[in-house]
Design brief:
Helices cover 4% and strands 24% of the residues. It is mostly beta strands. Among the domains are: 6-65, no CATH class; 71-110, no CATH class; 230-333. The longest helix has 10 residues, at 42-51. The protein is rod-shaped, with a radius of gyration of 50 Å. The mean pLDDT is 77.
Amino acid sequence: MANKKISQLVGMGAGETVSGFYLLPVGAGPNGGPYVTKKITTKELADFIFTGDNSTYVGFPATTLSGVNKEIYFNNDDANWNTASNVVTQNPYLQVRASDGLLVTGSGIGAAVGGDNMGNCVATTTLNMQNNSITNVASLFFNTTASTVLDEDGQNLVMQAARDMTVSGIRHVHISGQALSLASTPISGDVNISRGLNFQGGDVSITNNSTGTLTVDNIVLNKTSKHEVYSVGASDTEIDWSESNIQKSSDGSTINYYFTNAAQGQTLTMYIDNSSTSQSIIPTFASGAADQNPNSVLWGGTGGPPHIDTHRTNVYTFICIETGIFASAVTGYEYT
């Protein structure tokens, strides 16, 4: 074979020379020979190299081809190489470098230059950030749009639930800041304060309905406290103890007063001014509404309510204990 020209090599059949489509001559035979000349195409040679003959030769495996020192290139001479339809730029698993056609591999999703368009990402499992932060978030939506966490202007954060929002901790929930502002939102339900409560300026307003109460074990006042004085209308016979612990009335004739909504342990201070210029009056007091068979208020040594002279004022103190209301009076104040 060494003394023959390439054009003189022949194959298995008569007249089959190495020319045209059959470009490659090869020597074939068992180990040690004898060898004979055979023809082979470039495709058949490539198939043999990469896959073998499935019996005695296993070929050149792809794992070897992708080794550290192996480089694979695509033909980037084509006129359409850089067209948008052929170049993948958003997070491919296998990238082709446009400059020279080199394959660039990475682990998972690569970071495209200028940021990733993740608008169509749909998670199929739990997102694990591995202790990394999520930054520059304008809004987070839960259940599409029902509940949101919204960064209004880069400074103020708004959290809004579609219905109820629960903030809980297995131990404590810590809220820090210059102040906690509830604006016009009331607190509903019970509030349990296990430590000190310190009000540093400003008014504290607690508004209860007819059944609501504020229960405190101990109260220490460093300065003052007061009750707003409730003015009973002229000739009004009902004294509602839930209006205030201090009430006043001015009448020129005797009035029979009926107490309602007196609470166990409550003290009511009431002063009554006799506006008459000609007669004294003797107001009476009963526990209960007029149409409910009220009980008499219990008096001390006087045996009953004292009279009020003209242009004079009496000051009465009533204490509700159990089912009884106990009364005392200081009379004769010149107060108009």
